[in-house]
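ok so dumb question maybe but i'm new to this and my supervisor (M.) told me to 'just get the structure for Glycerol-3-phosphate dehydrogenase [NAD(P)+]' and walked off. so i did the thing. is this what she meant?? sequence i used:
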Amino acid sequence: MARPVRVVVLGAGSWGTTVAGLAAHNTPTLLWARNSDTADEINTEHRNSRYLGERALPDSMRSTADLVEAAQEADVLVVGVPSHAVRSTLTQIANEVRAWVPVLSLAKGLEPGTRLRPTEVIAECLPGHPVGLLAGPNIAREIVDGLAAASVVATQDVRVATALQPLFASAVFRVYRNTDVLGCELGGVLKNIVAIASGMADGLDVGDNTRAMVLARGLAEMTRLGEAMGANPRTFAGLTGVGDLIATCMSPSSRNRRVGEFIARGMTVEEAVAKLGQVAEGVKTAPTVMELARDYNVDMPIAAEVEAVVAGRQTPEGAYRGLRKVAAGSEDEVA
Ligand SMILES: NC(=O)C1=CN([C@@H]2O[C@H](COP(=O)(O)OP(=O)(O)OC[C@H]3O[C@@H](n4cnc5c(N)ncnc54)[C@H](OP(=O)(O)O)[C@@H]3O)[C@@H](O)[C@H]2O)C=CC1
Ligand SMILES: O=C(CO)COP(=O)(O)O
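this is what came out, is it supposed to look like this??
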């Protein structure tokens, strides 16, 4: 009898731990934590208190602080560290992952400096491996709590995605597939910036109509840039686009939304990120996205105001005053 597929997840933050928990219900799963106390706590107490409080993790899920051991065990490798850490993590194990092992990214940011998407960084570090991503409206804590959700495995080769879907699926976690890797990945990256704007709206008490305008016009910006870069615009109407945008902009738990709210309530960006104690990818990604917008000649007024706020050149009040001055064109021209 063939042995079961072994899933290895790198990064024991809130989402890496959650995805490892999903996989552990289906197949043997090992989670790499860079902090050995975290690995010990998962193995002995079946929880990750730093990131997920007292929430119970599956007893069958194992954890290690040994990156090489983890890499060697993988039949499927899931990269769950933040975007800025993907390259440094994978460089250490480039010769340890067996050939043809599929690699899935969870990260929703861009690599500072290179502007590369996480799947592009993975392809550079682990050439020859099928590369894809798992993304969608997936607030980690809700999924650990067993609340229903859906996600998307995106790979260029539909056979790879079809093989990976059941590894993460459950009765309450539906996993779709998509071959538009670029569109799915950009959706997850770009919605974080709109979520910061949505959080600022909460902090400034600008009202729900304004917040809805930011979401709708933010989606138009995401779609414009995605299409200019070669993505299918329809992807932005799906789970990884508008789905993730709604979850992140509305959820009290979203770190990107909370950073925006903290700043609007008077904190500096540094104070807001420190108070969070977890990653908020949109803060680092905003300047990179504005570089892309300039390169592709795409108008992104909301992202521009968010970038100015996180760079300290603009106040949240000034950003919302700026957005009021945006000239209204024809709504049916998304591009
Ligand atoms: N949380 C969520 O709901 C979701 C998150 N995501 C995305 O998943 C990615 C990971 O996020 P999430 O798990 O939430 O982040 P967290 O902030 O919860 O955890 C980050 C994890 O990465 C580790 N880490 C941080 N820096 C490095 C580094 N330089 N080298 C190696 N490991 C490092 C941390 O280790 P340590 O604890 O030792 O600092 C920790 O395990 C992000 O791109 C995020 O946008 C996607 C969907 C949902
Ligand atoms: O991507 C997420 C939900 O899908 C998580 O968003 P935050 O990183 O803002 O918490």
